Amino acid sequence: MQLPVVDIQGGSVGTLEVSDLLFGVPMNAAVVHQAMLYHRANARQGTASAKTRGLVSGGGAKPRPQKGTGRSRQGSIRSPQWRGGGIVFGPQPRSFRQRLPKKMRRLAIRCLLSDKVREDRLTLVQSIEMKEARTREMKSILAGLDATSSVLLVTQVTDEAVVRSSRNLPRVKTLPAPSVNVMDLLNHDRLVITVDAIRKAEELWGGGATPGDVVTAPSRPAARTRRTPSRTRTTTTRRRTTAAEKKPDAEEAAEASDAQSAEPEAPETQGSEA
Q: What does the pLDDT look like over 141-161, one tens digit per residue?
């Protein structure tokens, strides 16, 4: 997408190629509305506090007897129905903070920036440089840029001379590029932004890509395979001795006993007679 670039006098300087990811997004009113509620809720302090009947000092004594007066029963002058009594269900300190996904916040800013371009309410300036803070000079610069309504002036970084020159002008607000938010884009009719601020915005919300760039998804590291140690189970198999294996042992024992019985007995020696 090409955007015209002008100088501080309003004269044409040329064109600038910007990212369609930032300035060519269709409007998503639901996301913008949710982002607006997010900013407004987080801006609340939540310090409102009202005293209940237990917090109001006094009222410890019973105002009148329980019976005998013909009037209603009352236990304390700090009851809610009494003047100067406590407040029923009054506000108490609480947090109104909400959470919004980062992608939705960035999408809301992209939608509003793209809407400014479509409705020709964005002025791209080459640079805004001021040697000293002079409100009259800033007023003439904005008049030359045809920015007479409510103006949001965005620079790359905070410039003290620009901030001091514009802070006394009604309906003019100066912000650095990283501080641009949904509420300021909605509350100001015209957006005046410098070329350096455009590049910074593309880095923040456009992914830093131009229409000619090829955006590739980051490669994920290879998943580490977990090696499971192999458990070798040593099984001891008890071998059963079969009857065929037992038979030779029995035969050997029988042969051994036969051999012992076959041995000749030693003759007995007779002693000499005295």
A: 999 888 888 999 999 999 899
